[in-house]
Amino acid sequence: MIGIVEKIAEEQALVLSFALVGALMWLSALVSRRLTCGRIHASAIAIVAALALAWWGGVVSGGKKGLADIPAFAGLALMGGAMLRDFAIVATAFEVDVVEARKAGLLGIVALALGTIVPFVMGVIIAWSFGYRDAVSLTTLGAGAVTYIVGPVTGAALGAASPVIALSIAIGVLKAVLVMVATPMVARFIGLDNPRSAMAFGGLMGTVSGVAGGLAATDERLVPYGALTATFHTGIGCLFCPSLFFLIVSAIV
Amino acid sequence: MAIFGTALLALCTLLGVALGEGLGRLLHVKANVGGVGIAMLLLILAKIWLTRRGKLTPGMRLGVEFWAMMYIPIVVAMASQQNVLAAVEGGPMVLLTGVLVVATCFGLVGLLGRTTGGAR
């Protein structure tokens, strides 16, 4: 009996993850309707629940991939991996209103610039206040505040110490998690209810997973607009952090 | 046929990611520069072109829209494999940076949204 379950979990990993996520979404819809009278979006509950499960998975397995490190849930790594995530994000573009997107073009560029510079500067200042004084560590930690990809890419390019790179990843992951959880809560206060502000949001927040999760939990229709700008964020960060930003930081230090 | 839609989506994604990768090489960056964004623009262009020629069949639409609808479950699966433990246990510097950066950027979204709202 257990042999069959193990065999199926291994061979049907992706199919199993479809069933698991479906069950989680169904439960979330139930909680959303019954306990919150629909006030909290079912997707928001599902994403927070998934993050909590990821935390639990990390505790149980000691690995780095949350729930996906538990063998029975390995299929989640494929379903939620970068390949299918990007494929599905591109698909959402099918619903984009071209006129709206074009109108917000300049706003998106401003948001992208601010969304790279502001987190970087804040990250550097906070790292400085925690006692880091060398330009390489400061730049790597600042880059981590941009996204959790920019941090390690910058750190690797500059030859930062491994604990510093790990910290920069942690900063970026925390940023993504916070964006996922907090976006539906603050959406109303920051006017996040139209394609224009969604494009500004994507450019400023950057982290594709954070933006994707946060907007999905707030209003599905805004997802493509946020994703459109957010997808440029990591690339721009990887371009400027190890080069121009590093030169500026080392000139100041 | 639905597969034509999915194939179109795949083609746009592959082309976009390849162009993003090329752009990264050109700029000497170890990352994909806007690959997904380029792919989204390609898909939008393809949709406009197909609609104009009347070749966007309901089946084809379905092949793309299914994946657009699978987006949220995929994001949930993505959330379930984040390294939340490391993010939470990263210490005070990680916590402070994460919270301050996200709070500031939320504020900026509100500010940017408002300034453009006034110009409308």
UniProtKB/TrEMBL annotation, chain B:
<dbReference type="Pfam" id="PF03817">
    <property type="entry name" value="MadL"/>
</dbReference>
<feature type="transmembrane region" description="Helical">
    <location>
        <begin position="62"/>
        <end position="81"/>
    </location>
</feature>
<protein>
    <submittedName>
        <fullName>Malonate transporter MadL subunit</fullName>
    </submittedName>
</protein>
<keyword id="KW-1133">Transmembrane helix</keyword>
<keyword id="KW-0812">Transmembrane</keyword>
<feature type="transmembrane region" description="Helical">
    <location>
        <begin position="93"/>
        <end position="113"/>
    </location>
</feature>
<dbReference type="InterPro" id="IPR004690">
    <property type="entry name" value="Maln_transptMadL"/>
</dbReference>
<dbReference type="GO" id="GO:0016020">
    <property type="term" value="C:membrane"/>
</dbReference>
<keyword id="KW-0472">Membrane</keyword>
<feature type="transmembrane region" description="Helical">
    <location>
        <begin position="30"/>
        <end position="50"/>
    </location>
</feature>
